[in-house]
Design brief:
Layout: H1 5-12, E1 18-25, E2 29-36, E3 39-46, H2 58-61, H3 69-77, H4 80-103, E4 111-115, E5 118-122, H5 142-161, E6 164-165, E7 174-177, E8 180-183, E9 190-191, H6 198-214, H7 225-234, H8 257-281
The structure holds adenosine-5'-diphosphate (ADP) and magnesium ion.
């Protein structure tokens, strides 16, 4: 196909040789299959902020790192320079997250380049080498659903270990590659430790996984891994191989079992003492 204008700059730079086809035009980006030498890659062209949905509102931009305070002030004021800086921060957040997560061993597309608002990355492919389907396009046996759910929870732990909460994890942003699920679409990823919405976002991510795989393995619908994971994370106890139960007792509702048992014992001892006194008295 004829290269769209936004990809022309990458062709001029020699970063891509040709554009094979458009894969998707999603909410926030258009995605193309491109050729680079002998390789097939994927180019994600971000839409301008005005064309995008409101996903990057407050939650996501909070605590986003910017290069300097001039940029931060401009972003807060909403000047043109500020808007461009927010735009760049939003787009490069995905690139940053991809590098961080790949380094942490999370299965994400390998990033190659970020140029003029276009992210060049690995094309996640199925066994035939075609663009991989989204989980939402697939059917699973109960057994496969349980296995994928478990392995994606491990990926969530690994992401948290790298300090990242995806923030939009769902069956629409996970592709089923020949070698298993691959997590994509990260511009809204947040810093787990520095963002007030991180907990809510993590809980929603984990809930989305449960609800999707629960369609194929209904027993998953009873689980509550999100609160358990966040609780361990907050207490600094989360490990990549933490054994999770899928159950969580909220601390405020939790019963101090030891205390209750001690009280029962005390009551028994008192009763025994009372009987003894009565026997001695009679
Ligand atoms: N690296 C990739 N390999 C294969 N397909 C991809 C890749 N990245 C994105 N896609 C396809 O493009 C679609 C939109 O990409 P995504 O990153 O989710 O952007 P959006 O913000 O528009 O949802 C995905 O649902 C997927 O089908
Ligand atoms: Mg998406």
């Amino acid at each position: 196909m004829k290269a769209p204008a936004r990809l022309q700059a990458l062709m001029d730079e020699g970063l891509i040789d040709s554009v094979s086809r458009q894969l998707m035009s999603g909410k926030e980006a258009s995605v193309y299959v491109v050729r680079c030498g002998d390789e097939t890659r994927c180019a994600k062209v971000y839409k301008a902020a005005t064309e995008r949905s409101f996903r990057q509102a407050v939650d996501y931009t909070e605590n986003r790192r910017v290069k300097n305070s001039r940029q931060a002030r401009a972003m807060a004021k909403g000047t043109r320079f500020g808007r461009e800086a927010s735009e760049a921060a939003w787009q490069s957040a995905e690139v940053d997250a991809l590098y961080r997560l790949a380094a942490a061993g999370v299965r994400v597309p390998r990033p190659y380049n970020f140029f003029e608002g276009v992210l060049l990355m690995e094309l996640v492919a199925d066994a035939e080498g075609d663009a991989a389907p989204r989980l939402n396009d697939c059917e699973f046996s109960a057994e496969d659903a349980r296995a994928h759910h478990a392995s994606l929870l491990s990926e969530v732990l690994r992401m948290l270990g790298a300090g990242v909460v995806h923030g939009d994890l769902s069956e629409f942003n996970i592709l089923l590659a020949a070698d298993g699920p691959v997590i994509i679409d990260l511009p809204q990823a947040v810093d787990a430790a520095g963002n007030n919405h991180a907990q809510r976002m993590l809980l929603r991510d984990v809930e989305n996984l449960r609800n999707f795989f629960g369609r194929f393995a209904p027993e998953l619908l009873k689980t509550d891994y999100g609160h358990e994971i966040w609780d361990l994370y907050q207490r600094g106890l989360l490990r990549e191989d933490s054994a999770l139960s899928g159950r969580f007792e909220r601390p405020q509702a939790a019963v101090d079992l030891g205390g209750v048992l001690r009280e029962i014992d005390d009551a028994r001892a008192e009763e025994a003492a009372r009987r003894l006194r009565m026997q001695q008295a009679s």
